[in-house]
Amino acid sequence: MQEIDLPPAFRDRLSGYTSEKDTLGQSASTVLLLRADGQPPLVVKHEKSGPFAELENEAARLEWLAAQGLPCPRVLGQAQHAGQRWLLVEAIEGIDLASSRLSPAERIVILADALRSLHRLDPAKCPFDHRLRSRIAAAEARMDAGLVDENDFDDERQGRTARELFGELQLRNPKDEQLVVTHGDACLPNIVAQGGRFAGFIDCGRLGVADLHQDIALACRSISYNLGKEWVQPFLGLYGLPNPDPEKLSFYCLLDEFF
């Protein structure tokens, strides 16, 4: 770990570990996978400090989620160092559902089970508000700060501007919300399995109370991309929502363009 300027609070803890950059996720933070003989695997994340930094939010959400009895990375430390926000967690043993060698049929069962377990939590007890009023305001703030990557829009929105999409977002704002505790980015890379079973949620910085279609929309999009469109309807049946609201599915994919 000599090549990484770690926070002083992390250095003794990470002595003897080697690091590998995680290139699978699309997080704004840098993610390093750490391993050492005879020691548990760890993950260290860091990002530029500032009003849009998310790692402090993620730490709070991981600690809350763990307190509800759902598996997720255990927070080991946080720090501010060299203009960066840092988060150190214990990795979940297993492999994410995008990288897994399990069959598509097995993977959609695990994904459906994981989301059902999360959505069964009582939203009244969750302190993180990701309802539409809050998230649309956050989307606008990110747009105004120039943080929306217009080159990374989904294929059907390529060539459009963030300002155009925000206008569409306001026009299509759903009138009702079926509130649950959502992961916020419920794609296959963020669900870990081991031994053919759900092992935990990762990248939980957007966890909060929102319409269940927030998770279902991004899960269906991820299934289409990673497994094929033919697996979307079987997943919906396993989850227990065979006929989701198509307008909401489309809306929450649109909202995701801003994050």
From TrEMBL:
The keyword GTP-binding does not apply. CDD domains: APH. It comes from Sinorhizobium garamanticum. Belongs to the aminoglycoside phosphotransferase family. This is Aminoglycoside 3'-phosphotransferase. It holds the Pfam family APH. It catalyses: kanamycin A + ATP = kanamycin 3'-phosphate + ADP + H(+). The keyword Kinase applies. Residues 25-251 form the Aminoglycoside phosphotransferase domain. Keywords: Antibiotic resistance, ATP-binding, Kinase, Nucleotide-binding, Transferase. Its EC number is 2.7.1.95. PANTHER family: 3'-PHOSPHOTRANSFERASE, PUTATIVE-RELATED (PTHR21310:SF41), AMINOGLYCOSIDE PHOSPHOTRANSFERASE-RELATED-RELATED (PTHR21310).
